Amino acid sequence: MGTLPTLSYSQIRTYLECPLRWKFLYIDRLSEAPRGYFSFGRTVHSVLEELLQPFVQPTARRAGGSTQFTLEEFGAGRGSPRAPLDPEGMLALYDRLWVSEGYESPEDEERYRALGRTLLLRYHREITTQPPTPVAVEAHLETTWDGIPVHGYVDRIDLTPSGGLEVLDYKTGRGLTSRDALTSEQLGLYQVLVERNYPYPVERLALIDLRGGSHLVSPPRPAEALAALRQSVGEVADGIRDEEYAPTPGRPCARCEFQDRCPEFREVPAGERAALATLVDRFAELREVERGLGEELASTARTLHTEAERLGVHRIPGARGLAIRRRETRPRGASSTPGSPSAGGVAAGTTCGSPAPS
Questions:
Q1: Residues 6 or more apart from 16 whose CB is under 8 A from it?
Q2: Pick the residue with more confidence: 334 or 320?
Q3: Span 133-162, pLDDT tens digits
Q4: Delimiting residues of CATH 3.90.320 domain(s) in the chain
Q5: Mean pLDDT score across all residues of the chain
Q6: What's this model's pTM, rounded to 2 decimal places?
Q7: Pairing of strands 66-68, 61-63
Q8: Residue-level pLDDT at 273
Q9: What CA–CA distance (Å, rounded) separates 246 from 18?
Q10: How far apart are the first and last CA of the chain?
Q11: What is the pLDDT of residues 291-303, one digit of tens each?
Q12: C-alpha distances in angstroms, 139 versus 70, 110, 338?
């Protein structure tokens, strides 16, 4: 694998869902099948970036232990500010940026397109009524977290009235609740990125539910939540370093476009099915025999133990071997069942090299 790649939240989530899919996407560089809801979300995010840019008043970032403006930030938001887009200009931009890929049908695409207009017009009214105070939109932030390089594109970072920061993430899906904001690991990773890149405290995290028209706010993640997230990131990094790319079948398989490459779904070649089917059936028969012998073996061992205990002997000879009653080996206070390995059971002995019943 060589150098560990800089991990995004999307990469981390993909690896945790299925390491093999991560390999297909980020090592083999296979293309994902386009999907309408991805195209829709990408278009809306692009419009919102342009819509919010005139409101941005950049603040200094951390750099080498000090704080400074980056070259791209220096002067941005100063001088004569650009006027925000009016509704007509915003919708014209929406039409220009529209991504027409992955929709199930022209009707499906038009439904999404109409939905986007509705969401954007409503959001335009909201920010016109109560202008936001962003210090950055679509901020690309990077850091090293306990030796692991991570990065992310944060939709928006706002200045709070008390001088702290609020980290916001736009969502175009449906059915979001306050719990989503409280448990979002994506917001947790963004908190780490913002804290490492800005000298001001993160005071709030928020999901902007564009469909529901709500601002779902959460306090910043406590240390224990970030520690759990850091452990997940570490497991992903370790797996990538060790080149562990086994598939993990589950619900995400239904929408995976790489089933034809995955051993979980690959078919046995037709010419080999008959011979292998016979081998599988024989294996199943042997496992049934093994289970039956195991039960008989345990029953016989318990009987020999009981008889040795009744007679007060430790060894019972047979024609093919020797059964030896084990002495008690379990820790004091531990419960056991006669004949079990931790109790006084029957061990295998030998006579002239032959195995004894056990």
A1: 232, 235, 236
A2: 320
A3: 999 999 999 999 999 999 999 999 999 999
A4: 33-221
A5: 87
A6: 0.75
A7: antiparallel
A8: 86
A9: 8
A10: 49
A11: 999 999 999 999 9
A12: 12, 31, 67
